[in-house]
């Protein structure tokens, strides 16, 4: 399906990660020109750059540094012209469970800087460039943030990440503010957000290896599956298309399989009931007790 993105210049931040890589791939399939940003390594991008060498380029930048972001946009526009669409996808999810009572201020500030402050810097630089652009460039103007279900529901042990993506910050704060500001520069400009739930990516691979984590996430998800990167990328590209989504702005699209939050408290309650029952059985019939082969999540699925 033609989404009207042929030769449109798209900047994807964090393009070397799981979701960013697939977003880059789908835009290129649609005929767009893509500047793929990365911070640490562009190895995952090399096959796409080689395949679409006339329409794809990669550039390294630390997005928490203002001058680095400025250089990113200068490099992008020198090859493909002004950036017309930005996909603000970069971010970090600290894998270690750290409740607020134990979290260091250093970790909090680092996550907020990488996920939120840098998004502000990227958007500001994009809007500056848009001010200088011609009207035909402005007609495609679009900012699309990648949020997270944890920004809506919270995530125990990851308050820094949840706050950086939350309704008061990126997902609604920036989205709803910028959708009113962008039209003063580009009358057809739009700002939206796609908020994924759990998605199979390298960033959360270790967490998804834990069946208990998967159970808690899937317990309130009607579709009963962990998302894949194409689920997110296709939604992003459709929302970026002025042909398909030209009258859509200020929206947060939850791509979560219908998730209604983390069943953490129900999970804990059920766990306590099961363990108490098991202890009682062991006291009355000690010979019947054995070490269960199922994980806790397996127990729950069996009950």
**String of helices and strands:** EHEHEHEHHEHHHEHHHHEHH
> Strand content of the residues, in percent?
5-15%
Q: What is the CATH topology assignment of the largest domain?
A: Rossmann fold
Strand element count: 7
What percent of residues adopt helix (DSSP H or I)? 40-55%
Counted up, domains total 2
- Low-pLDDT parts are 290-303
What is the distance, rounded to the nearest whole angstrom, between the alpha carbons of the first and last residues?
A: 46 Å
Helix-strand category: alpha/beta
Structural descriptors:
Rossmann fold, disordered C terminus, 303 residues, alpha/beta, seven-stranded parallel sheet
Describe what this molecule looks like in 3D.
Strand 2, helix 2 and strand 3 (56-60) form a beta-alpha-beta unit. Residues 290-303 have low confidence and may be disordered. The chain has 2 domains: 9-255, Rossmann fold (3-Layer(aba) Sandwich); 267-302, no CATH class. It starts with 8 loop residues before the first strand and ends with a helix. Helix 1 (18-29) packs across helix 11 (229-240) and helix 3 (66-80) runs parallel beside helix 4. It is elongated and about 80 Å long. It has a 7-stranded parallel β-sheet, sandwiched between helices. 42% of the residues are buried. With 303 residues, the protein is an alpha/beta fold. The chain has 14 helices and 7 strands.
């Amino acid at each position: 399906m033609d989404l009207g993105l042929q030769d449109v210049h798209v900047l994807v931040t964090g393009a070397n990660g799981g979701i960013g890589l697939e977003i880059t791939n789908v835009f290129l399939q649609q005929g767009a020109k893509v500047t793929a940003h990365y911070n640490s390594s562009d190895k995952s991008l090399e096959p796409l750059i080689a395949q679409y060498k006339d329409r794809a380029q990669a550039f390294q930048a630390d997005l928490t540094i203002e001058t680095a972001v400025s250089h990113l946009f200068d490099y992008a526009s020198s090859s493909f012209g002004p950036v017309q669409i930005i996909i603000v996808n970069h971010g970090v999810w600290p894998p270690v469970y750290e409740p607020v009572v134990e979290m260091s201020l250093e970790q909090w500030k680092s996550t907020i800087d990488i996920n939120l402050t840098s998004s502000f810097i990227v958007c500001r630089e994009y809007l500056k460039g848009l001010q200088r652009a011609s009207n035909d460039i402005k007609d495609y103007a679009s900012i699309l943030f990648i949020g997270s279900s944890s920004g809506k529901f919270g995530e125990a042990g990851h308050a820094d990440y949840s706050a950086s993506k939350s309704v008061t910050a990126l997902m609604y704060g920036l989205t709803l503010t910028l959708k009113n500001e962008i039209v003063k520069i580009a009358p057809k400009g739009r700002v939206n957000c796609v908020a994924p739930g759990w998605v199979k990516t390298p960033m959360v691979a270790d967490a998804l290896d834990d069946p208990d984590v998967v159970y808690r996430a899937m317990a309130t998800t009607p579709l009963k599956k962990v998302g894949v990167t194409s689920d997110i990328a296709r939604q992003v590209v459709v929302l970026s298309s002025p042909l398909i989504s030209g009258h859509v702005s200020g929206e947060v699209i939850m791509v979560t399989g219908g998730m209604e939050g983390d069943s953490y408290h129900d999970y804990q309650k059920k766990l306590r009931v099961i363990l108490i029952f098991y202890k009682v059985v062991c006291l009355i019939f000690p010979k019947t007790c054995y070490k269960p082969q199922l994980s806790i999540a397996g127990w729950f699925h069996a009950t």
